[in-house]
Design goal:
two-stranded antiparallel ribbon; 3 domains; about 475 residues; flat
Length: about 475
């Protein structure tokens, strides 16, 4: 059970809910104007007040629709992108409901454009207030130290250290880390796990306990769960970071034998595929016509002046469902021969002078928009690996999670790319984090997330990236 702490913060949700319903009906009265002039004689005798009927209808279906998509489930760790996604979903659902109401009463003579204007203004106000409350709460936590959660961390794993860093660096989230406990003696550890129970007894009002699963025994986990239930505080678990978890794994039971399969991802639903493919085609045509067409002419001259060889470099990559395809780039090396299992390294002698610039700015990737137009790639998605690396990485990563990233088309850019996990793989952590971000993208895909990644990629071109060499 999730316990809610705080004196007044629990009021925010019902206040926002009441405000939204008020705005929905206030603007309906202003825009839709359910008066006798807009009704035929028969309808006015049957329904004396269409507006009153709409009020009841809007309240019931607003509450139902917002509950269905968890519209008010915004937490301190929720991103702005998720809030915008919720607003768009609710706009589409409620628009359908409003037009359905008007369509059900043919006697109501309200223009479709007027209704659309009502919906736009309504959601503009609701969205503004929703985002305003979100940022005001962040400022309240950061500046006034209010709405703070008092937490402790049990464990000294990579995941526990990453969580500690989040709590300490993102003060606007409102987490106050009181102590850390682990049987591993290291810097910043308050005491061992046994001492944590004494600390909990001496310090009342702990809001949340975060337990690193791979450092605790089953009995220790049970003890923390019992404490959390008795003292009404939340307990949460930090998984082992090297074991990537996918919420898309489906379990079927053959008699009593559990069998795992990769569940169909949202990206591969027919409607989402149509939306993403339409975006890919339009975006790639724009890039090819307005950028690639003239950039290719200029780079042809510079590349040819410095070294012999073709303008474009063609290499095999694994695409969706491990299908092999030819991936195109502007040639940035003196050679076009692909060396098995060899990424370009820092200060690599194979890289030409113009090639350094192309790789630093990622301009060498522009020809991949041809791959997007052909349907082998998408604008945004997991980056495709060399064939030899696909085989090598699959041995280091949990197989289900590695297979999962190949259930969608690879991308010209991706979430892992903008997070810095690109290019040369120096250690296992690099590929683990790359797969982690790839799977997060697949499981949380939306057009808004694609646009965010594209914008960040464009910004990185101008800023430059550490591992772009």
């Amino acid at each position: 059970m999730e316990y809610v702490r705080g004196r007044y913060s629990w009021l925010i949700r019902p206040i926002l809910m009441s405000f939204d319903i008020f705005i929905v009906n206030l603007l309906a009265y202003y825009f839709l104007n359910f008066n006798e002039e807009n009704l035929h004689f028969f309808s006015s005798t049957v329904f004396n007040n269409k507006h009153l009927l709409y009020v009841a209808y809007s309240i019931v279906f607003w509450l139902l629709s917002t509950s269905f998509i968890s519209f008010y489930n915004v937490y301190r760790y929720t991103s702005v992108l998720n809030i915008l996604s919720l607003l768009i979903k609710q706009f589409l659902i409620f628009s359908f409901l409003v037009y359905a109401f008007i369509g059900a009463f043919r006697s109501v003579n309200i223009q479709a454009f007027v209704t659309f204007k009502y919906l736009v203004f309504t959601f503009a106000i609701i969205g503004f207030v929703k985002l305003l409350s979100y940022y005001l709460l962040k400022a309240y936590r950061l500046k006034l130290k209010g709405n703070v959660r008092r937490v402790i961390i049990i464990g000294d794993t990579d995941g526990a250290n990453e969580l500690k860093s989040i709590f300490n660096n993102k003060k606007e989230l409102g987490y106050k880390l009181l102590a850390r406990f682990s049987n591993v003696k290291s810097k910043g550890i308050t005491g061992d796990i046994k001492e944590s129970f004494k600390f909990l007894e001496e310090n009342s009002g702990i809001d949340e306990i975060y337990c690193a699963m791979d450092e605790l025994s089953e009995n220790q986990v049970n003890d923390f769960v019992k404490y959390a239930n008795i003292h009404h505080c939340n307990i949460k678990f930090i998984p082992e970071t090297k074991k990537l978890f996918s919420k898309r794994l489906k379990t079927d039971f053959y008699n009593y034998l559990p069998v795992l399969s990769i569940e169909e991802v949202a990206l591969n639903h027919d409607f989402n595929k149509l939306v993403k493919r339409t975006f890919d085609v339009l975006f790639s045509i724009f890039i090819i016509v307005f950028i690639l067409s003239w950039v290719s002419v200029i780079l042809f001259i510079f590349i040819k002046l410095e070294s012999k060889g073709p303008l474009f470099y063609k290499h095999k990559r694994n695409g969706i469902n491990y299908k092999e395809f030819n991936c195109y780039k502007f040639r940035s090396l003196k050679t076009i021969k692909e060396v098995k299992g060899t990424y370009v390294q820092q200060n690599d002698t194979r890289v030409t002078k113009i090639g350094k610039f192309l790789r630093k700015t990622s301009i060498d990737e522009l020809p991949q928009f041809v791959n997007v137009l052909f349907g082998d790639m998408s604008v945004v998605g997991p980056r495709p690996h060399m064939l030899s690396y696909t085989e090598e990485y699959s041995k280091k990563i949990d197989k289900y999670n590695f297979i999962f990233r190949h259930h969608v088309k690879p991308g010209v850019t991706g979430l892992a790319q903008i997070k810095g996990y690109r290019g040369e793989i120096k250690n296992d952590e690099d590929i683990i984090n790359r797969i982690k971000f790839d799977n997060f993208y697949i499981e949380n895909w939306s057009i808004l997330l694609d646009l965010k990644i594209i914008i960040q990629t464009a910004l990185n071109i101008f800023k430059g990236e550490k591992k772009a060499y």
